[in-house]
Design brief:
Blueprint lengths: L4 E4 L3 H12 L4 E5 L11 E6 L6 H7 L8 E9 L4 E14 L6 H11 L3 E4 L11 E2 L10 E9 L9 E5 L9 E5 L4 E8 L5 H12 L2 H7 L4 E9 L10 E2 L2 E3 L15 H16 L4 H9 L2 H13 L3 H11 L2 E3 H11 L2
Helix pairs in contact: 1-3, 1-6
Length: 340
């Protein structure tokens, strides 16, 4: 491996893969179609889910990802049309994505530059451009999860810094949920949907969700700042097609996404790290993926097929089954018995 290593895509996965390889002493170039570092979905708060097996942040640190979250969610309020459950305990770690200096994107960019990574912007990855790692997000025309909403100022809002809200309602997020998450100077509200893949229609649904009285109370007198528009892609069995012709596909470029709830942060970091390991140590990327994830994706896909058929009455029964309140440990057991 004496030549330059090429990474296509300067998102979370591409930046972290390039950083790990460069720190191992190799010459690395990142190609990106954009003119600067910025998430395609726009500035927003992104959560790392930590209630499924616990210690999610420690797992990322084990792979060399040592960026600290700016906060955590200690109270998660889940709502359906008729019921509400309050989940108590640390369920998510929060990271900022965007163009601001304190975001994950900009910190990784600075670290890559310090490690000697070369950046070539305005270059689109295609059949005529070879890459060792592809981290360009969902393949063209292949997204199957959509997010639409907006950010709003922390100033004037009534959102607690350690509380998040999720509304399970097909009228505002078909097959998914409307979420409200805290940031620092701005917060995020958006619909994540599996059953509505048209942005304009989903945005109208998110607006309808934002007009509900309890959401309006959270928004308070805040002002809107920017839009959130994100596409995501999950594959039923992403490990089977992650290495093609010597190219490793990471993150959503390879279909590595949370099919149940759309939390892709963990998969972006872990697949980037495994792709870097395969290059640095000369190991099979596919074998590393299978060892790390096992049947995780097959289990998630089975749950997603159930959720795709849920009506609002089903969501009511789901939230009702949790009771008015539970701890993270209780929820972990409840989730496993109900779905997994």
């Amino acid at each position: 491996m004496g030549g330059r290593i090429t990474v296509a895509g300067a998102g979370l996965a591409g930046l972290f893969a390039a950083l790990r390889i460069a720190r191992a002493g190799h010459d690395v170039e990142i190609l990106d179609v954009k003119s600067r570092i910025a998430p395609s979905s726009g500035p927003h708060t992104e959560a790392l889910r930590d209630y499924v097996g616990g210690e999610a942040l420690e797992d990322l640190k084990h792979h060399g990802f040592d960026l600290e979250p700016f906060g955590s969610i200690e109270t998660t309020v889940r709502k359906s049309e008729s019921f509400e459950n309050v989940l108590r305990g640390r369920a998510y770690h929060l990271f900022l994505r965007g163009r601001e200096p304190e975001t994950v994107d900009q910190e990784l960019y600075r670290r890559c530059e310090d490690a000697g990574v070369t950046f070539t912007f305005g270059t689109k990855f295609g059949s005529d451009v070879k890459a060792d790692i592809v981290a360009t997000g969902p393949p063209p025309g292949s997204f199957n999860v959509l997010g639409a909403g907006f950010t709003f100022s922390a100033d004037g809002s009534n959102l607690d810094q350690q509380t998040a809200y999720a509304l399970l309602d097909n009228n505002v997020a078909p097959g998914g949920y409307l979420v409200v998450t805290p940031g620092i100077e701005y917060h995020s509200i958006y619909s994540v949907a599996w059953g509505e893949l048209d942005h304009d229609r989903l945005l109208k649904m998110a607006e309808a969700g934002a007009s509900k009285p309890w959401v309006k109370d959270i928004l308070g007198s805040s002002r809107r700042i920017g839009r959130i528009y994100g596409k995501a892609y999950f594959a039923p069995d992403p490990t089977s097609n992650a290495e093609r012709g010597g190219t490793r596909y990471v993150g959503e470029a390879g279909g590595f996404q949370d099919a149940i709830a759309g939390f892709g942060f963990r998969y972006a970091v872990l697949t980037a790290s495994l792709a870097a390991d395969s290059i640095i140590e000369g190991k099979s990327y596919s074998a590393l993926l299978r060892k790390t994830f096992g049947e995780e994706f097959a289990a998630a896909y089975a749950v997603r097929k159930k959720l795709d058929a849920f009506t609002n009455a089903d969501f009511d029964r789901l939230v009702q089954s949790m009771g008015p309140s539970m701890t993270v440990d209780e929820y972990r057991q409840h989730r496993a018995s109900r779905f997994l």
